[in-house]
Amino acid sequence: MPAITSRIDPRSDEFAQTRAENLAILAEYEQLMNESRAGGGPKYVDRHRERGKLLVRERMELLLDRDSPFYELSPIAGWGQSYPISGSNVTGIGVISGVECMLTGHDATIRGGASNPISLAKTLRAQDIATANRLPLVNLVESGGADLPTQADIWLPGGKWFRNLTNMSKAGIPTIAIVFGNSTAGGAYVPGMCDYAVMIKDRSMVFLGGRPLVKMATGEDATEEELGGADMHCRVSGVGDYYAIDEYDALRIGREIVAHLNWRKAGYGPVRAPVEPLYDPEDLLGIVQSDLRKPYDMREVLARVVDGSDIDEYKQLYGQSLLTCWAHIHGFPVGVIANQQGVLFSEEAQKATEFIQLCNQYDQPIIFIHNTTGYMVGTEYEQGGIIKDGAKMINAVANSTVPHIAIMAGSSYGAGNYGMSGHAYRPRFIVGWPTYKGAVMGAEQLSGVLSIVARESAESMGREFDEEADAQRSALIHAQITHEESAFYNSGRVRDDGLIDPRDTRTALGILLSAVHSAPVKGTNEWGVFRM
Amino acid sequence: MIKKVLVANRGEIARRIIATCRDMGIATVAVFSDPDAGAPFVNEADQAVALGGASPTESYLRIDALLDAAARTGADAVHPGYGFLAENAEFARACVDAGLTFIGPTASTIEAMGSKLESKRIMTEAGVPTLPSREIDPSHPDDVLSAGEAIGYPVLVKASAGGGGKGMRIVRDAADLVEAALGAAREAASSFGDATVFLEKYLDEPRHVEIQVFGDTHGNVISLFERECSIQRRHQKIIEECPSPALDTDLRARMSEAAIAAGKAVSYVGAGTVEFLLDASGAFWFLETNTRLQVEHPVTEMVTGLDLVRLQVIVAEGDPLPPDATEAMIHGHAIEARLYAEDPTNSFLPATGTVHSFSITEDVRVDSAVESGSVVSVHYDPMIAKVIAWAPTRHEAARVLASALAGARIHGVTTNRELLVRILREEEFLAGRTDTHYLERHDPATMGGPLTTDVRRHALAAALFAQGERRRHAGPLASVPSGWRNSPSQLQRTTFRVGTKDIEVGYLFGRTGLTAEVDGDPIDDAILVEESPAGVLLRLGGVQEFYSVTHAGDTWFVDGPEGATTLVELPRFPGQDVEEHTGSLVAPMPGKVIRIDVEEGAVVAKGQVLVVVEAMKMEHSVRSPVAGTVTHITIVEGQQVDGGEVMVVVEDRESE
C-alpha cells in the first residue's frame, strides 16, 4: 500500500480556525494539569520539603530510567467534584531498570496522602491495567489510610486493593512497595501484601494501630518505632525486606529489585523498525473538529499517527462510514477501526465484525477511534436488521481477546460507544482527546427527545402543553448533558485513562502498545452466537 | 653494517628509533618492563624481550638483562635512547665487550663528558667559559655548606649523572642547602643509580641555549645549530625551538665554535649536545654536555631536514658524516612542546590513568609514547608526547602548534596541554622574551586552567549527549521521544564535577524544543540541532558549535572549538559519605612512601612535613594541615599507596 496522501490545506481559514478552537481547549486542559501537578499547594509542598522529603513526582522521576518516557494516567481525575484534582495520588506507566512498570504513589501533600474515592478509583484502575498487561507494580507508599470523611465510599470497594495485590502475586506479576512515611491501618496491608517491601530508616511507619489506638485497646504504652519503624520491621517482624537509609537509597533499592526480577515481556512485538509518519502531527490541531457536527477524514489523522503514514485499508469501498485498516505504530502491528461519518449502519457493523475476527485470527491489537453518534435508526434500518448487525459487532468486540485501545476522538454516544469497545468493554486503555464527548446521546438530541416525549404524553392525556416550561426544562437538561458529556467530566470520574494532546497520539500509542505486549497478545476463535 | 638494533629504552624515543631503523632496513628489538607490556613501542619492534619488573632499576637499568636480550635475539647493536643508561659508560663498555656496536660515544668519552666536573675541566682547557661548581658529599653537612659559601648563593644542586631536571634544586639560602643536597642525592640514586651530586653557580634570568654537535670516526665534528630550551618548569624543559630568537648569525657562529672546540677536545663521535647559559648581553657559559640524543632533537631535524638517528647509525658504523649533515642549514622555524601527564594548576602533580583517546589531527609532527588505550603509570617519566610544528616563521609555527594542541583529543589523563597552548599564544613568548624564569613571571596555575571560557556549554553538551546515549541503548520504548511526559513536572537532571566544582544541568524536550538550564540558570535560545554517537551540534544564541563527546564510565570528555573539558558525572543516588578523620593526610597520588618524619604521638606544627611520597620520580612532601598531635600512622616506609589513601591522622590541637 502506498502512504496516505494528505488533502488538507494548512493555509486555509478553516484549518486556522479549527486550530484556534483546539488550542483554546488545550489551554483550558493545561490549566487543570497545572492544578494536578501542584499537589496540595505551596503551603503543603513546602512543609513536605522542610521535612527533607521528596515530592511524589520527584520520587517517580528518580525511580524511572533517565530520559525514558512516563505516561501518567488520569491526571485530572476528581475534576468537577469535591475532591482535589488528581485525587491524592499519581499513577502511570514508566520504565524502571529497562522494565515497563505500573507506578502508583501517594501524594502526601494532599491530606497526608489519605485515600479518597478518586484516588481509590485510580489505584484500582492502575491495578487492573497492571494485571491485564502483566506490568510489575511499584507502589510508593505514604498515606495515613482512608480519608475518613469519605469512608462510606471507599471502605467496601477499597478491599479490592489488597485482593488485587495478592491476585497479581498469584499471577506472577511482581508487586513492590517502597514505604516513604506512614502506611498505617488498612494501608499497612500494601507493604504487607506486596512481594517486596522496602522500608526507610526513621521514615517508614507501618502498623495496624497507632500509639493512641493501642493505648485505648490494650493499655500498652508503645513508641511508634516499636510499633512499626523500619528497624523493627526489617530486624524483628520481617515485614520489611529491604532496609534503606534514606529516600534515595530506597529508590536505588527499588530499581535494583526490578533489575533483578529477570522480567521478560510475553508479547511478540514490535515486529519492525519504527518509521516516522510523513506528515507533521502538529497538523492534527487543524484537522480534529471540536464541533461534532463536522465529521473529518480519519485517514488524515492516521497519516499523522502510524508508521510511514502507511495503512492497508480493508473493505475500502464497503460500509464507508467506518474505516478499517492495518498499520504499524512504533513497529507494533495494529488493526484500526475508526468512525468516518459518525453513524453506524448494518454494513459498517458487519464490516467491523469481520475485521475484529481477522485481527483475532492473527493476534493483532485493535485501535478503536471513536467519533460516532451511534447505530442508525429509522424504519428502513430497523427492518434491515440493524439490531442484529449491531449485536454482531458488540458480540465480536466483547469476546475479542486481542488488546483493545480506545481513542475517544470525537463523539461517542449510545450503543456506538459499546460497539467501539468503550469503557464497559474493558479496553486495555482509553485515551481521550480533550475535545471528545460521551453520553447516551448528545445534549441537543437528549433534550429534544425528552421534549417530544413530554409533548406526546400531554397530548395523550389531553393536557395543554406548557411551551414555556418545556423550553426552560429543555435548557436545563441541555446544560446538564453538555456538562456530563464533556471529556473533563468523564476523565474526572476515571471513565478514561486520561486526556492527551492529539499531537501526542502517536507517542501515547507507542507507549501503550509496548505495555500491552508485556502480556501475551493472543486472539480467539470463540465467540457468542452471531445472529445472522 | 648494523643489521639488528636493540633499543634499550621505552616510550616515544623507542618508537622514534624503531621508525628510523625500519626506514634504514635495520631490524629492531624492544625491551620492556611489566607495566609497559602493552605499550605501542613493544608492538612496533620486530622482536621484543620482557625484562620483568616495574621500576627502572628492576628493568631498563639492568645491563645484564639487556645484554642477554641482545644475545637471545641476535642484535648486533644497541641504541640507548635518552635517560636510563644512555650516558652510562659501564653500559657502553659492556656492550662493546659483548661484541655489540654501541650507538653513541665511547665509554671513555661518556666518562669524561658525563662527569660534570671533568667536562668543565676539559671545557676550560678548550677555552670555553664555565660556571663555578663543586662536587659535594651530602653526608658531610659542613663540607656542603662551605662549598655553597665558596660558590656564592644562589646555587644549584645537581645530580652528577643526571639530566632532565631530576635531582635538581635551586637553593637561595644556606639553611636549605643540606636538605636539598640529600633530596637530590636520593633522586639521583633512584633515577640513575649514582648518588653523586654537585653545586653550581646559579644565574638569574638566563636563557638555556644548547648546540647540537655531531662527530664521526674520521675526525669531523660539526654543529647542527642551536636549540633554545628556556621555557622550563622545575628545571624541566617544556618548550624548545630552533632557531633561538636570541641568536644572530654571529652569536650562533661563536657558540657553535665553542661547542665544536669542546667536541674536538675529546674526539667526540656521535650525537652530543653542549648546553650553555646565555645572558642578555650575549655572554654564555658552558653548562654541561649530554652525550646522547636529546629529547628535543626533533626541532633540529625539522629545520635541517636531517634524521639524527640515521646520522647516529651512520657514524656508529664508522662512516663519515654525509654531505647533507656537513652542509646543513636552518630552514624556517620549528617549535616543540612536551606534553606531560601532570596538573599545572596543582603544583605540576603527575597524573596517571588510562589515555582513553589520544589523537592530534593537525599537520604537525607527533612523537608520542602513548596511543588511545595506553596507560600512564607511576613508574616512569610523565611525558606522553612531543608535538613539533614547523613553519617558515616563528609566529606561524607557534600558531600552528597552539592550534594543534588545543584541538588535540587527550582523554583520561590530566595534561599540561592548556599551559602549552597559553604560552604559545602569549605576548612575551611571541616577542621572543623567553628565559628560564618565564614561568615564574607567568603563573602556570592560571595558564594551565581550562581553555574554554564556558564550561557550562560543555556540561550541557555532555548531558545532552549522555541523554542520547541512553536513548540509543534503551530497551523498550527507544523510539518514543526522549523523556516524554504527558504531564511534565520537572527537568531531567545530571550533575557533573569539573575539578572541584559541581555543575548541575537540567533539560527537557518539549513540543517547543529544548528547555535547558545550568545551575538553575536558564540557557535561553538553546537548540539541539543534532545528536549522534560522535557528539552534539548545539546552537546557543544563534551560534552553532559541534562538541565531540566520548566517555569512559562516568567520565565524560567534551572537545569543542574552544577547548576540552573532562566532566565526572556524579551518581544519581548519592552513597553515604565516608567519614574522614579531621586532619587526615591522604596520599596526593599513587606512589611510594619513601620517608616518614614523625611517629604516633608526635606534636606537629601546621605545614610541617610528615611524609614524603615518591611518585613518577618526583618527591612530594605531605605537610600537616593543622597544628596538633599525630594520632595514627597507617603506612610504613617503602609502602606503595593509592591516591586518596589515608596515611596519617593529625588531631587538631584546638579541637581537643
Strand order of the largest sheet of chain B: 27-26-25-24-32-31-30-29-28
Protein chain pair with the most extensive contact, residues per chain: A-B, 39 and 25 residues
Helix fraction bin of chain A: 40-55%
Distance between the termini of chain B: 76 Å
Compute the number of strand runs of chain B.
40
Biggest sheet descriptor of chain B:
9 strands, antiparallel
Shape estimate of chain A: globular
Overall pLDDT metric of chain A: 94
Describe this structure in words.
The complex is a heterodimer of chains A (532) and B (656). In chain A, helix 13 (346-361) packs parallel to helix 15 (386-399) and helix 17 (443-460) packs antiparallel against helix 18 (467-484). By secondary structure, chain A is of the alpha/beta class. Chain A has helices at 13-37, 42-50, 56-63, 117-133, 151-170, 189-193, 211-218, 224-228, 230-237, 247-259, 284-287, 298-302, 346-361, 379-383, 386-399, 414-419, 443-460, 467-484, 487-492, 505-516, and strands at 70-73, 89-96, 99-106, 137-143, 175-183, 196-200, 242-244, 312-314, 322-329, 332-339, 343-344, 366-372, 374-375, 404-413, 429-432, 437-439. A seven-stranded mixed β-sheet of chain A has the order 1-2-3-4-5-6-7, sandwiched between helices. In chain A, strands 8, 9, 10, 12, 14, 15 and 16 form a seven-stranded mixed β-sheet that branches. A two-stranded parallel ribbon of chain A has the order 11-13. Chain A has 20 helices and 16 strands. In chain A, 54% of the residues are buried. Chain B is an alpha+beta fold and 656 residues long. Chain B is 27% helix and 33% strand. Chain B has a nine-stranded antiparallel β-sheet, with helices on one face. In chain B, strands 14-13-10-11-12-15-22-20 form an eight-stranded antiparallel β-sheet, with helices on both faces. The radius of gyration of chain B is 27 Å and the shape is globular. The termini of chain B are far apart. The mean pLDDT of chain B is 90. Classes of the chains: A alpha/beta (532), B alpha+beta (656). Chain A binds chain B through residues 33, 36-37, 57-58, 61-62, 65-72, 75, 95, 98-100, 245, 248-249, 251-252, 265, 274, 330-331, 498, 500-501, 503-504, 507-508, 510-511, 514, and chain B through 467, 470-471, 474-477, 479-487, 489-490, 492, 494, 511, 572-574, 576.
